[in-house]
Amino acid sequence: MRGRGARPARGIALSIALAALIGGMAGRAQDTAGGQTSVQVSQEGKEVYEQICQACHMADAKGGGAAGAAVPALAGNPKLADKDYPITLLLKGRGGMPWMTDLLTPAQMAAVINYVRGHFNAFPGTVTEADIKRVSSAPPPVRECNTCGM
Amino acid sequence: MLNDITPQTRRDLLAMIGKVGGGMAMYQAMTALGHAAETQFTGPPNLSGARPGSTVLVLGAGLAGLLAALELTKAGYKVQVLEYQSRPGGRNYSVRGGDTITEVGGAVQKVGYAPGNYLNPGPWRIPHHHRTLLHYCKALGVELEPFIQLNHNAFVHRKDAFGGKPQRYKELATDFKGHVSELLGKALNAGALDAQVTKEDKERLLVAMREWGVLDANMKYSTSLAVSAQRGYDKAPGGGTGGAPTPSAVNGLPDVLDSHVWTQMGFYFSYVMQTTMFQPKGGMDMIGKGFFRQVGKLVRLNTKVTKIAQDDKGVTASWTDTVTGQTGESKADWMVCTLPTTILSQMEIQVSDSKKAALRALPYSAQVKIGLEMASRFWEEKDSIYGGHSFTDQAIGLVSYPNYNFFKDGPAVLLGAFASGAGGYQLAGMTPEQRIETALAQGSVFHPADYRKEFRNGASVAWSRMPWILGCCASWTEDSRAQHYQNLVSMDGRIVLAGEHASYYGCWMEGALLSSLDAIKRLHQRALAA
C-alpha cells in the first residue's frame, strides 16, 4: 500500500527508503486500486500536515478516539519539545502509525515537524534536513519506539 | 480384475479419489501429486474431543473470531465472543441506505443509498484460489456472483498522457504490446540478440512477435483492420451495404508510454488479481452474516474489552458495555484474540514482552473508499462498460463499476475512490463532504457529461478514522516479519492471536481465516495436552 505514487525518499534516508520499498513490494499482495498515482506531497510544512498527518491526527491536531483506541494529540504535546522525538517517529513509526520514509523526503519531514512544533505548540528551535539525517544515521540505528512514551 | 481398483493413470487415480473422497480429498491428492499448490487450506479442521466443560473466550467478531467460534463449538468447547461494534463482521462490512458512519473526530454520515445498493468499504473481491473463504461461503450458504475484474473497455487516465483524455484499456494495451513487439523484432533482425538466442529461437520469436503484436508484413505495428480486431474500430463491422468496418488509428509509442498502461497490465498479472474473482450477492457483509447465523447466540455485541489477563488457570477479559455502561469480566480456559493491533497495542494485556513488541511493530494503512450513487447507469448505456475498473493517477485511484443489476433502471452505486498511499492520506484528512466533492471532480474525467449531473448522494469510509480500528490493514516488512512475526503468532500461555495481521495474506479475508484455523488447531492441541 505504502509509497505508491509517492515521491520516493532520497539522500541519507535511502537505506531506510530502500528497506521500505522492499517491504512495499512484499506487501503488494495487498489489495490496491491498480496502477500508480502521481499524487505529489507539498514541500511546505502546513500543507504536508494537511495532506498526510491530519488523516489521523485531525485538522486541529488534537487527535481523537476513545481511551484504548486513541490517536495521540500533537497540539500541546510536551513530548515534542525534544525535536529528535518527532524525527524518530517519522523515521520509524510506532504502533499503528507507519514510518514516513517512503512518503516524505527529509526536507518534507523537517518542514512538517517545524510546523507542528511551531503552529500547534510553541517550542523553540528549528529542525533541519541535517537533523533528520543525523538521527537516521546515528549509531546505534534509530531506536525502536516500541516502548517510548506510550 | 486388478484394473477395477488399480488406477492406470494419474487422471484415473484422481477421478477415483474424487468419487470416493469428494472434492477436498481430490484437491489434497492433486496437491500431493504436484498440482494446484495454490493454497494452504486443507479443509475444515474437524476438531473434536474437547475436554468436557472446557471454555474459550474469543475477542472480536470479525471473520477470524467468528470462524474460531464456529469450529471450536463443533469441537466441543463452550465459546463466548465479545465484540465492540453493534454488528458482527469487522472489516467484512457493507454500507447501505439508512446506515450511519461515525468517524474519529465526530464527523457523522447518514447514508442515503436506495434499497439494494451498497458500498463494500473493505474487502470487495475474492480470488478464485482463496479456497478457505470459498469453502465457508458455500458451507454457510453465502451466494457468490462474478466480480468483473478485467474490463478491456474501461478507461485508463493519466494527467500527463493524451492531454488528460482517458483512453480505453484495450487500445492502450494493444498498442503497448504492438510497439514492444515491433522493437523486439527490430532488435532480433538487427542481430542484436544473436548472442542470447539460438537461430531457431530467433525465428520462432520473430513469428511470435508478428502474431502476438499483430505486426504487418514489414514487421511494423501500424493501423490496420487486423489490429483493430484487438483495439477496436473507427467504424465497427456491420451488416448489409455499409457493413465494411474501418480501422482505428494506433497511437504512437511515446503517447503509449506516457499512459503507463504497463502498470495496469502488470496489475492484472498479480496472483491475487487474476480472474476469476467473486463477490457475495447483496454485499460483502453477507459472509459475516452467514457466520453469525451459526454462532450469533455466542456473541455479545457492544462490548468494549478494556483489559486482558491470564494465569495458569485461565483467562479474563474485562469489558464495558458501550450501550448500558455496565462493566464486567468474562473468564474462560483459553482465549483467541482477534483484535487489531492498533487497539491491542494500547491495551493492558498479559503476554510476553516479545509479543507486546510485535503488537507495537505493525503500522496500519490508511485506505479510503467512496461510494457514489448515480441516478442511472450511464457507464453502461453510453460507454458499454459493465463492471470492472477505470484507472487514474489521481488520488482516487480508480472508478469501479457495479458488478450486479446490469441493465437495470434506477440508481446504482459505483466505487468513486479506492485511495491508498499519499492519495489515501489526502482523502482521509478531508471532511466527508470534501471527499465527495473531490471524488466527483476527479472521477468526472471519465464521464464528464454525466458524473455530476447523475450524482445523487455518496458515502466514504476513511479507515484511519474508523474508531473501532484506526486503520485498514497491518503492514509488514521483511525486517518486521523476521523480527516479530513468530512472536506475534505464537501461543502465549492460554492466549493465541488471530486475524489478517497474523498471516502472510495480510489485508485479505483469506488471511484472517487461515490464521484463525492455525490458531485454533494449536489451541486445541494445547488444551488436550494440558
From TrEMBL, chain A:
Keywords: Heme, Iron, Metal-binding, Signal. It holds the Pfam family Cytochrome_CBB3. GO terms for molecular function: electron transfer activity; heme binding; metal ion binding. Residues 40-120 form the Cytochrome c domain. Residues 1-29 form the signal peptide. InterPro entries: Cyt_c-like_dom, Cyt_c-like_dom_sf, Cytochrome_c-type_DH. Gene3D superfamilies: Cytochrome c-like domain (1.10.760.10). This is Cytochrome c. It comes from Novosphingobium piscinae.
UniProtKB/TrEMBL annotation, chain B:
GO terms for molecular function: L-amino-acid oxidase activity; tryptophan 2-monooxygenase activity. The keyword Transmembrane helix does not apply. Its EC number is 1.13.12.3. Keywords: Auxin biosynthesis. It is an enzyme of class 1 (oxidoreductase). Signal peptide: none annotated. Gene3D superfamilies: 1.20.1440.240, 3.90.660.10, FAD/NAD(P)-binding domain. This is Tryptophan 2-monooxygenase. It comes from Novosphingobium piscinae.
